[in-house]
Amino acid sequence: SRRSWWDKFAEAAHGIKLGVRGQASFCVHFFFAVLAVAAAILLECDRLEWCLIVLCIGIVLTAELFNSALETLFHGLDPATRARLVGVLDIAAGAVLMASLTAVLVGVFIFVPRLLFFTTGSW
Predict the structure, then answer these.
(1) Model confidence over 66-83: pLDDT tens digits?
(2) pTM value?
(3) Residues 6+ apart with CB under 8 A from 95
(4) Which of 60, 77, 88, 109 is the most interior residue, by most CB within 10 Å?
């Protein structure tokens, strides 16, 4: 039977809830996302800067959800299969790190000049 769009949306929302629950690293990323949004508000970022900030937040949180999905799958495997897949979790964590470092660089490019202007009054 075909599922309705509402059912698919509800399952996806449940997936986010499962991916977030118990993940300390997701909470850290969420904290920095809130910090970036607050900084964008205070520093009056323009539309393009907002788009970049939201895009970076989305990419980091999505990478974290994929990492959580792989961790969940990995821990459900038998020991022999896990032994053959050594490094999978490290690669997934590396993807989260790469997304996070990219977001930090975008944040530096957006916020540092605005902070310098805010504190010194000139570009």
Answers:
(1) 999 999 999 999 999 999
(2) 0.87
(3) 63, 66, 67
(4) 60
